[in-house]
């Protein structure tokens, strides 16, 4: 979307950029408020063109800052997306990517997590004198004695979910659409069990196994299947007891009670902001909402605000955002706080009406959802506001990434502090400083993404490449069960029969065809060979960077272990407790200010 600006407005943008880069001798760095939503689709806000939702506070935030219509998550699913957000690095580099559906996110009993030699945004800002705090969903590993939790990754304190909110966290709900857990596991693993049974039968037919031995072998297969069902029901997110609420390293509520959770999180965030502001210290708050991931939970005052439970959830989310933004104004720090707003991935279409929408762009339906590299899985809402420095009411179609939050924030802070030391982590930073784009957003001929190309993975499979914020080449595309979703598997896969491979890749012009419906070919697109050559070169450059800076060992493919059960039980072996108090007073004594 291009806007027409006067010469004076363009000059003002250039002046603002100059002074932003220059800083002052007595500059104080801005506070940083990162508002991150779970499973919010591109089309789930009023500012994104949805007239059925109630989101006036988020819409106002967009009008007061810069809104990105091509904001792209580094992954289409929770764990890898969140790792990329906090490090500015692709999930495949972090060891947090897998294409197999049951390995795509970290489980409560996963022994791995975000590795400690990865530098997080919290650690980088803490090293620059910031107070740091996290409220809400983590989902980057727990580990023995909570070794992977936020307080071991640069956050002074943490109040929130060690893993995530799922259907199992609400009484009477399940993650799977089948009638039983056994049926769900059978639907997704029957080839394994049938293969084991056939192997036993063939061994019998060739004379190496007696009838009695065949019967015993079949019995062992059945018992193994039942054991797997039992283990999955106890040790994974299929179990309500794996819904965990933490205070720092301590489990304070198990299973998690979803009632009033958004209000508790908001109160906790408010208390931190008041405390940090009273200390006259710059602060970083990572407000990671449990909404709008299913199970949908809503306080009574937000019930029936809209036409569905999902719209009610958006309204409650919007209330929290508005509450925190009003708090900034009350404390007189709204103009000097960078506010980022985005979502970890696209809508959870397998949940039907409870899963949100990828929406439309220029009257075209955006295809796909969570777990996919179609636009609906990775294109999400994106807003930034920094009232004292950034322009207001601008919109840009230039492509940016969730990974850009890390380097952009650090660059702004360093300019204010005149910080000269280069931030170093475990390896290559894939995000870019998008300050210049923000300052020129919407100005035709001047705005340009720093990303000449962007790489999109589905799990650990390099699946698509984006060129010049316009062209997208897909090497693999999702095979759907119905609509744009895969309900029997709970989510579409990235490998095997779950995808269709394309060689050469299929190519789309996203500016003219955001719905990815009209494939470009040599016959209908004169620049086809030129763009495909650039795609091939981008892949080569990227793969060389992988070779030059090896990935972390995979954390999501590590076998879950029952040995960790005592470490994720607040009262082992019952794994039940409720030590929840007033979350606003858990960490910070406002009376001491």
Task: Explain what you see.
The chain is an alpha/beta fold. The protein has 13 helices and 18 strands. The strands form three sheets. Strands 1, 2, 3, 4, 5, 6, 7, 8, 11, 12, 13 and 18 form a twelve-stranded mixed β-sheet that branches. Helix 6 (181-205) runs antiparallel to helix 7 and helix 8 packs parallel to helix 9. The longest helix is centred in the N-terminal third of the chain and has 25 residues, at 181-205.
Search tags:
593 residues, alpha/beta, twelve-stranded mixed sheet, 18 strands, 30% helix
Q: What shape does the CA trace take? A: globular
| Contiguous runs where pLDDT drops below 50 for at least 5 residues | none
Largest sheet data: 12 strands, mixed
- Could you give the distance between the termini? 47 Å
**Relative strand content:** 15-25%
- Please work out how many helical segments DSSP would assign: 13
Rounded Rg: 24 Å
- Roughly what percent helix? 25-40%
Number of strands: 18
